[in-house]
Structures are given as C-alpha cells and as structure tokens.
Amino acid sequence: MAIRLKLVEALARRRLSIVELSDRTGISVRDLEVLRDQKAMALRLKTLDALCRALNCTPGDLLEYGENALE
Prior knowledge:
Elements: E1 2-5, H1 7-14, H2 18-25, H3 29-36, H4 45-55, H5 59-62, E2 63-66
Antiparallel strand pairs: 1-2
C-alpha cells in the first residue's frame, strides 16, 4: 500500500503552474517539486492546509491511498 499526493492532477484541473502555487502558498518551488514528484517522505499538516486553501479543495482531493497509488 502507498500514499500518493495528486498534485499534478490538481494543478492541471486549475491550470496552475508550480510557480503560481508557490506564490499562493509561500511554499518554495523546490519543496513543491519534491511533493509533485512523489519524493517526499512526510507532509506537514500545515503544508497540506496551505495546499488545500490555495487549490480550494480538501485533503481527500489531494491524497490517494491504495495498492497502485504510486503507479
């Protein structure tokens, strides 16, 4: 089982770039790239909150859990 952050899909739906999301959240572009590329080992609730506020979504819209989550 794995957890995947669906950041690419959320950005595509809203037609936002990583740079625009960085401006909206205050999260560095590099940190967002780590999240986007599934390289993060942890995700702070503060970061998840900032992403949800900027993307106008819920944590359930950004997180996927399952056998094939990383495929």
